[in-house]
Description:
Layout (H helix, E strand, L loop, with lengths): L13 E2 L2 E2 H8 L3 E5 H10 L5 E5 L6 H9 L3 E4 L2 H9 L12 E5 L4 H9 L4 E3 L2 H10 L4 E7 L21 E2 L3 H10 L3 E6 L8 H18 L5 E3 L17 H19 L4 E4 L3 H4 L3 E13 L2 E6 L8 H5 L5 E4 L13 E7 L11 E2 L3 E2 L2 E4 L6 E4 L20 E6 L2 E6 L4 H5 L8
Parallel strand pairs: 3-21, 4-5, 4-12, 5-6, 6-7, 7-8, 8-9, 8-10, 10-11, 11-12, 14-16
Antiparallel strand pairs: 1-2, 3-13, 13-14, 13-20, 15-20, 16-19, 17-18, 21-22
Amino acid sequence: MTAQMTQFPTLVEDIAGWSVEELARDYGTPLFVYDAAKIVERINDLDEFDTVRYAQKANSNLAILDLVRRHGVAVDAVSAGEIHRALAAGYRAGPGEPSEIVYTADIFDRESLDLVVTHEIPVNCGSPDMIDQLGQRAPGREITLRINPGFGHGHSQKTNTGGQQSKHGIWHEQIDDCLQRAARYDLTISGLHMHIGSGTDLEHLSQVCGAMEKIAAVVGPTITSISAGGGLSVPYRDGDEPVDISGYTKLWNATRQQLAEQFGHAVSLEIEPGRFLAAESGSLIAEIRAIKTMGNNLFYLADAGFNNLARPILYGAYHPMAICRAEREQRSEVGGQGQQVVVGGPLCESGDIFTQEEGGFVCSRELPAAAVGDFLVIGCAGAYGAVMGSNYNSKPLAAEVLLENGKAHLVRARQSFEDIIRGETIPPQ
């Protein structure tokens, strides 16, 4: 089975059957719109895994968490705030088979440690110190370990989560030390997690599976589950190949079966998608507010910037784009031909360009001719979009809308100016 690619034309009128112009009129711009059906489709693509655990860092809106929970997906939390979000979305704390919430991180801050102890939330330890800190507060529990196998992979060095330049996980040569630490507090290591970065291909994945088998053999038969981590690729460009889920599953099933035979008991298989579930569901709608020529470059400048979608400035990430032409009595100012344009936002920052490559190199994109008042639709924006939003230039966080079962639900109101300055004070003079 291979995930089906989302086709993204450059001239659109609707998102999942909903008029772009009406959405913009009803909720304003910039606006994130999520298609619930696409998220459910991606969940169903992973039905061969025993547990699908959503990495909510990709999109932690409560409505998204509630949606995936209703479709049988467990959740991963990487902070105290994400634990609170999972609880608010209806997930139950405490151990279970599988546990509904797992805390995965490289450190405990004081609040997160208090929460996992109080709520008995299972912990996936990414640093040896976490074993000691949890053991001192809650001896006798089960833990899992996130292992850095010594190599990584990613579409950007900034998304590579393996190897000695990555801060993530427990170094593969420190397993004996971790076993000693766990024994000191009567902690049972019941699972292993291994994630080397985003966009992992099958060649790298086979290396991960081999590393998992090697580490599991060192830990021994207390292992009852293994996690394939995340990193499933998403097609952003025309011609990108969708991930081969069957090949992915086949490799991990072989590893699981090998360990089950070795240990003499069943070993469950978990996967932890974030971007894979959320990215294709999301679109960012912005209004084009200026069109201007700078030398040989034609610019479309919209009211959304990297304060709304930071992936291009962070990683040089590519997002598909389309134009939605607003209805007007006169359309003579817009021709029918496509043209090379640079697409940017409103921020007082030279890097506020959506059409850029890693390293900040500005490039152009062929898009239909447009006029001020038309709409820019940025696709595959459901992951690492709104969650990375900021108030840079005192811009409000964008509104978010979920399309589900024929209805549009406002699942996050646009910030007001009062929201932005809440908590700020001027000292008495």
